[in-house]
């Protein structure tokens, strides 16, 4: 285990990066999947009933937004 050194202005600059042999290359491994692949993988986490309910909720929200937008645009165009 590394010894703890006292930090003082007289001790000079301190390196905060780990030695080169301790740096992991895990950051590159995270980018192997595309966004579509990650989203498809998420579908496997939830039961079919949850996915169906979420789909119905989104479809209803989109439909209500379209109706609201159509109503507002008609009200302001007159």
UniProtKB/TrEMBL annotation:
Location relative to the cell: Mitochondrion outer membrane
List every stretch annotated Disordered: 1-31
Q: What does this protein do?
A: Central receptor component of the translocase of the outer membrane of mitochondria (TOM complex) responsible for the recognition and translocation of cytosolically synthesized mitochondrial preproteins. Together with the peripheral receptor TOM20 functions as the transit peptide receptor and facilitates the movement of preproteins into the translocation pore. Required for the translocation across the mitochondrial outer membrane of cytochrome P450 monooxygenases.
According to UniProt, the name of this protein is: Mitochondrial import receptor subunit TOM22 homolog
Its domain of life reads Eukaryota
Q: What is its main location?
A: mitochondrion
InterPro entries, alphabetically? Tom22
Membrane topology, from the record: Single-pass membrane protein
Similarity section:
Belongs to the Tom22 family.
Question: Which keywords belong to this entry?
Answer: Membrane, Mitochondrion, Mitochondrion outer membrane, Protein transport, Receptor, Translocation, Transmembrane, Transmembrane helix, Transport
Enumerate composition-biased segments (Acidic residues). Answer: 19-31
């Amino acid at each position: 285990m590394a010894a703890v050194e006292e930090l003082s202005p007289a001790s000079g600059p301190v390196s905060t990066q780990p030695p080169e042999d301790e740096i992991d290359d895990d950051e590159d491994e995270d980018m192997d999947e595309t966004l579509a692949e990650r989203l498809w993988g998420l579908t496997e986490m939830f039961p079919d009933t949850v996915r169906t309910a979420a789909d119905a909720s989104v479809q209803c929200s989109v439909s209500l937004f379209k109706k609201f937008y159509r109503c507002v645009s008609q009200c302001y165009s007159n």
